[in-house]
Amino acid sequence: MMESGQPGGHDGEAVVENAKPKLKPPPHFKVVMLNDDFTPMEFVVHVLERFFGMDRTQATHVMLQVHTRGKAVCGIYPAQIAETKVTQVNDYARKHQHPLLSSLEEA
């Protein structure tokens, strides 16, 4: 027999349950390189190796996608990293007097 004034025998004590927060991963974005008619293919390969850590074969494959399809995904990253990559690529291209552009798309 329970001798408590509260149902379940808690005597007015608060019951604390550990609620697990529902965390969702941060949004990710695709870094997309866009084709133009002026940037040399070798420069595009160099940019892919330098800023996206691709080896020569992979960089050449992505460069050919940019060339033939008009654009290609260079990588998928959390928002801040993707924004940094786009800025780095675009600034580097301008510094070397090429019109190469990259942009973001939601993943």
TrEMBL record:
The keyword Hydrolase applies. Keywords: Hydrolase, Protease. Gene3D superfamilies: 3.30.1390.10. Pfam families: ClpS. It comes from the Bacteria. Coiled coil: none annotated. SUPFAM superfamilies: ClpS-like. GO terms for molecular function: peptidase activity. Residues 24-101 form the Adaptor protein ClpS core domain. Residues 1-22 are annotated as: Disordered. GO terms for biological process: protein catabolic process; proteolysis. Binds to the N-terminal domain of the chaperone ClpA. Involved in the modulation of the specificity of the ClpAP-mediated ATP-dependent protein degradation. PANTHER family: ATP-DEPENDENT CLP PROTEASE ADAPTER PROTEIN CLPS (PTHR33473:SF19), ATP-DEPENDENT CLP PROTEASE ADAPTER PROTEIN CLPS1, CHLOROPLASTIC (PTHR33473). Belongs to the ClpS family. This is ATP-dependent Clp protease adapter protein ClpS. The gene is clpS.
